[in-house]
Amino acid sequence: MHVRSLLILASALLCKAAVAATLCVSASGGGCYHHISDAVAAAAPGDTIVVVEGTFHEQVTITKSLSLTALSGVIDASGMVNGIIVDGLHNAGLANVHISNLTIKNAKHEGILVLNASYVSVSGNTVKNNNTSLAGGMCPDLPTYEPGEAQDCGEGIHLQAADHSIVTNNTVTENAGGILISDDSGPTHDNLISFNNVHDNPGACGITMASHVPAPSTGAALPFGVYHNTIYGNRSLRNGAGIGGGAGYGIFASIPGAKTYSNVVVNNLAKDNGLPGIAMHAHAPNQQLNDNMLIGNTLVGNGADTADAATAGPTGINVFSAVPTSNASGIMISGNQIQQEQIDVNVNNPQAVTVEFNNLLGKGTGVSNTGASTVDATGNWWGCIFGPTLAPGACSTVKGAVISLPWSITPVDIQPNF
């Protein structure tokens, strides 16, 4: 019996080893695969692929559960659609893919596209100079499965119809836009975007959550929705300064029936972006922008909003939903520090918005309300003890229907963590 038990144990260990192999990739060979795609094709589900060194001119398509990491590796996707695509659209149920420590550059569209997949992690990568097909603010050769990316080619990292996934500790720069979360081919929900350094992406926002027109192949009449996502501890700097422009963080609904709701943007930095630090837009009837929470963010020196969501000057946060049939209720703005802005918080919304316990330090308009509802702006620090009404010019002020009393007579204790 003892020998039989040992044989059973040995068999189990061998089986476990068989499904957890490590494959290597090196441009110089040395017993490793010469191309990442070859290693991906050879890998079994659950395997790990380690890129030892080299620059690889290829598009890597992942269709199975695996880990792809690098000691030193560059994917130069010049002339190719993507650098890496995690393709669950054509491989139903794809999950547990992990991508880390690579540099991905020069793709025509996204550097990394996660498509209809679950439990994916994208960490420690540098994603730069992608979206190279973009010309004159338009992307001419989009796949039909992502119809909403005509103005930015999908940005640097794109989660589309992804859930329970993490994008963390990446540097995303010199793309059209930084990180995009959208619902073109399915609902996108319960994802975490954290501790990324997103900077100098001129054509769109640093980080965007947007509900788009559904892809024709889905047969859906209405967008699927972007919801229950968390944007935490990121740095969004100098994005959206070019054609099209962009905010530090964008929460958007596009066509009638689009829905981007119940998301949290917490403890992030937005500085020197082309549009407001955080922009929330509902442009059409029957959209859902409700129950989004903007908590503990630091917003410095961002730009004015434009077009139908235009603000009167540089703005920290803009909440725009001028269509009465859209639902933008339950929006909470609290614990934020806003400075070097002409308007700290601008609201044009048919439903009530809560703006409480923030440090409104722009010394211009602390809260401007041009909408139909009243803004509850109690408990804020307006930059001086006199509040927004007793000493004009000393504190930030209010415009429109804004309840500001009682206000705080000391700054709100905010502890940034980005």
Task: Outline the biggest β-sheet.
Answer: 12 strands, parallel
Shape: elongated
First-to-last CA distance: 58 Å
How many distinct folded domains? 1
Helical amount among residues, as a percent range? Answer: under 10%
Q: What is the tally of beta strands?
A: 40
What class do helices, strands and sheet pairing give?
Answer: mainly beta
Looking at the overall shape, the CATH architecture is 3 Solenoid
Number of H/I helices: 3
In percent terms, what proportion of residues is strand? 25-35%
What is the fold named in CATH at topology level? Answer: Pectate Lyase C-like
Determine Rg (CA atoms, Å).
Answer: 23 Å
CATH class: Mainly Beta
The mean pLDDT is 94
Major beta sheet, strand line-up: 1-2-5-8-11-14-18-22-26-29-32-35
Oligomer type: single chain
Give the uncertain stretches in residue-range form: 1-17
Keywords: Signal
Signal peptide: 1-20
Pfam family, one: Beta_helix
Domain Right handed beta helix: 88-210
Give structural notes.
By secondary structure, the protein is mainly beta. It has one domain (55-403): Pectate Lyase C-like, CATH 2.160.20. It is 7% helix and 34% strand. The protein has three helices and 40 strands. A twelve-stranded parallel sheet has the order 1-2-5-8-11-14-18-22-26-29-32-35, covered by helices on one side. Strands 4-7-10-13-16-20-24-28-31-34-37-39 form a twelve-stranded parallel sheet. An eleven-stranded parallel sheet has the order 3-6-9-12-15-19-23-27-30-33-36, with no helix packed on it. α2 links the parallel β1 and β2. The N and C termini lie far apart (58 Å). Mean pLDDT is 94; it is low at 1-17.
